[in-house]
Design goal:
The chain has 348 residues and is an alpha+beta fold. It folds into two domains: 122 residues, no CATH class; 195 residues, Histidine kinase-like ATPase, C-terminal domain (Heat Shock Protein 90). Helices cover 60% and strands 14% of the residues. A five-stranded mixed β-sheet has the order 2-4-5-7-6, with helices on one face. A two-stranded antiparallel sheet has the order 1-3. The protein is elongated, with a radius of gyration of 26 Å. The chain starts with 14 loop residues before the first helix and ends in a 15-residue tail after the last strand.
Length: 348
């Protein structure tokens, strides 16, 4: 275990993790069936027999781990790993004992063999999940984050400074406010953003960015904020709002001489944080392939990957046209400030 890649158990309340554990166990059962079957044609019959014995204790073990996840997250990795393997072995023993008592002809292999196999499968799955976590983090996560951070258009700073210079003499107060917004925005971009941020902080950066764009676009850029009921203490990946708003301005406002309206709707519902961003989407703009449109797809892809790194299958990002609007919706679990992640440490 290194300082850069601390070992931590998976989040047993994460749907993606539960699905991976289930699939991994079935793959191990299939491998054992292929090794044991006298002929390839008989492997499926052997596999179905293994699956019938494996599936009930596997699902029961996952249910116990799901219920015990908050407690397990407070323990050290070695203790929790042993506890997970012990839970799998205990549940398997209880299941096998039930089979021996009720259906002796189905309890093939005996009690101790079932316990040993459960321990080996649980250990193998934990090792695989740990390897996967180390492979994805931190190198891949940091690379994706740096790519996203660098995605603010290179000429954005140039345009902003030009707008500020035009205000220095005519409206020095507004020029000073613009420089403060610019400093705040780049302070957020240059910060260590590997941890989850708060929605309140992300809204501050988003407002700073849109205030700067308003200097350049003037009345062409209008923003509808519907965030009165937004949970400002909710946790989300850093720098996900600003790139989406940049796309909305770049593709929905700039191409139109009349400009348009960007809608920002953020709310909590059914334990999920919802972020919906709308911008005008004229047909002629959609039909014209430009490098900026490719950049838009790249930004959405990067955000999807970052959501997956933090929330796995529990988060999603969709983008589609609705009439003359382009709508981006981001949904993720609603985590309060005090929420703990899989390593048992509270988020800052």
């Amino acid at each position: 275990m290194t300082k850069e890649t601390p070992t931590a158990l998976p989040d047993f309340r994460n749907l993606g993790i539960l699905l991976r554990i289930t699939v991994a166990a079935q793959v191990l059962a299939l491998g054992a069936a292929l090794a044991e079957a006298p002929a390839p044609a008989a492997a499926m019959h052997v596999f179905l027999g293994y699956a019938a014995h494996l599936q009930p204790p596997l699902l029961a073990s996952l249910l116990v781990l799901f219920l015990a996840a908050p407690r397990l997250s407070t323990l050290s990795y070695p203790v929790t790993a042993v506890a997970c393997i012990g839970i799998a072995m205990l549940v398997s023993a209880l299941w096998q004992a039930f089979l021996l008592r009720q259906y002796a002809d189905l309890a093939d292999g005996g009690l101790w063999r079932a316990i040993l196999l459960a321990g080996l499968v649980a250990g193998a799955v934990l090792i695989w999940l740990d390897w996967r976590t180390r492979r994805l983090s931190p190198a891949l996560a940091e690379a994706r984050l740096q790519a996203l951070q660098a995605r603010i258009r290179p000429h954005f700073l140039f345009n902003t400074l030009n707008s500020v210079l035009s205000l220095v003499r005519s409206d020095p107060g507004r020029a000073e406010a613009a420089l403060e917004n610019l400093a705040e925005l780049y302070r957020g971009l240059l910060a260590d953003n590997r941890q989850l941020s708060s929605l309140g902080r992300e809204l501050e950066l988003a407002r700073a960015y849109l205030d700067l764009e308003t200097l350049r676009l003037g009345e062409r850029l209008r923003v509808d904020w519907r965030v009165d009921h937004a949970p400002v203490d909710a946790r989300l990946p850093a720098l996900v709002l600003q790139p989406l708003l940049e796309n909305a301005v770049c593709h929905g406002i700039e191409p139109s001489p009349e400009g348009g309206r960007v809608g920002v709707d953020i709310f909590a519902r059914d334990g999920l944080l919802n972020v919906v961003i709308r911008n005008p989407c004229a047909a002629e703009v959609v039909a014209r392939p430009t490098p900026s449109r490719r950049g838009n797809r790249m930004a959405l892809s990067n955000i999807r990957e970052r959501l997956a790194l933090h929330f796995d299958a529990e988060a999603r990002l969709s983008a589609h046209r609705v009439g003359e609007e382009f709508v981006v919706q981001m949904v993720m679990p609603l985590l309060p400030t005090s929420a703990k992640r899989g390593d048992g440490k509270a988020e800052p």
